[in-house]
Amino acid sequence: MNKPLKTPPPYAIASVDHALRGAVMLQLEDRLTVSEVAERLGVARSTAHRLLAMLVYRDFAVQDENHLYRAGPVLELAAHSQSRVSSLRAVALPHLRRLVDLLGETANLAIRTGDTVRFIASAECRQALRVGSREGMVFPAHRTTAGLLLLAELSESELAEVYVAERYHDRPAERPDLASLRAELQEIRRMGFAVNSERSERGLVAVGVVVRGTDGTAQAGLSVSMPSVRYDPHQLRPLVATLGAVGRGLEADLAAAT
Q1: Is the pLDDT score of 83 beyond 80?
Q2: What is the pLDDT of residues 174-183, one digit of tens each?
Q3: What would the CATH number be for the domain defined by 83-257?
Q4: CATH 3.30.450.40 residue window(s) in the chain
């Protein structure tokens, strides 16, 4: 039995979603203004101010003497480990926005931790029917484009360590079939990109490539996500070429930043 796909709740509460996304933004970044939060969430400045005031009240945020907001005590642990993620995200955002401009679909950057991936940056497209921001969300690695790309970088022994059976003693259904996964990862290595059709969420297709550091090691997965009704497999090659070009630009900027 496979783990159910992650789908939005049928009765989503916008204010709660805004608060959670605001907390994630503070968790991933150093400091934000009210205007930046308002723009990113697509809400009025007054709404963003009330949201941040509540996050401060509940210790998810603190406000400094310059009226900038940063992660509070509740998020302090993440704040201590955010330097790499924060710098990677800051360099990546302009490239994600460029992808949106070029392809008209939502762009994402994700990193792997063990058998999960975390989306550290998203840039939403403006189409009425679109994939929303995945920023801050965590998914099983083998169910996402970025996760498959990053798992494909592992050796046989490293992959076996990630999915060692003992780790799934209490949740055996969440462990993928390793023989099938190895075959899929081999094909991804051969092609140099990955396609995820409705593995993480129904009605969603994502295509991605690896972002590498100066030493050639994989740093993250760069992808675009779109409603499955808009995915055209005949346009896969030019889409991958665009992803590759933007990915190389991101790699160059990461090298310059380090």
Answers
A1: no
A2: 899 999 999 9
A3: 3.30.450.40
A4: 83-257
